[in-house]
Amino acid sequence: MSAPDPASPTCHIQLADDPLQTERLGELVGERLQPGDTVALSGTLGAGKTTLVRGLARGLDIDDPDAVSSPTYLLVIEHDGEIPLLHADAYLPKKLEGFLDDGGLEYLFDPDKVVVVEWPERVHKHLPERVLWIELSVTAEPGRKVVVRGEGAGGFPWVADLETILDLG
Q1: Among 54, 113, 129, 132, which is 20 to 30 Å from 60 by CA?
Q2: Which residues contact 14 (CB under 8 A, 6 or more apart)?
Q3: 3-state DSSP assignment of residue 163
Q4: What is the pTM of this model?
């Protein structure tokens, strides 16, 4: 993640080692996203990025959220719904950068869609100014630490209340 802006709303969440909790967090985030929003999703391999996107797809009411899978080798997967979801992966940065440099920016950052970019730090220069950053990390105790931060104009003000909204009971 880039250096935090002190004015950006930030939320720190500890999740149990339960994919359903990661998916539930994604669902709550998805319910709050609007067309044109970009989510930068970072974390190591196995941190739960694709699981979180599956939940996000549920929150956006995507037609088939169970079809969400890692787009690593496909580069970008589009999921249909009232607000379409574009799920991109920059794990292979040269491949994604080539796509973006060849006109893919207009497609990827369509104002009528929600975009999720995994491994965003690898294509940071291509991201829009207004981004919801989500960082997942596996903790020593079984589970995940999640940091959610809104950046840019309007900066996702609901992020400050996300931990309160999240009911993991």
Answers
A1: 129
A2: 139, 143, 144, 145, 146
A3: helix
A4: 0.88
Which residues, listed in sequence order, are joined to residue 13 by a DSSP beta bridge? 146
Q: Residue 51 is encoded by which pair of tokens?
A: 């699981």
Give me the percent of the chain exceeding a pLDDT of 70: 92
What whole-number distance in Å separates Cα of residue 134 and Cα of residue 12?
Answer: 10
Domains observed in the chain = 10-163 (3.40.50.300)
- For 13, list phi and psi in degrees, rounded to 5: -130, 135
Q: Determine the pLDDT at residue 168.
A: 60
> Would you state the pLDDT for residue 1?
41
Look at residues 56, 105, 126 and name the one whose alpha carbon lies nearest to residue 84.
56
Who contacts 45 (Cβ-Cβ below 8 Å, separation ≥6)? none
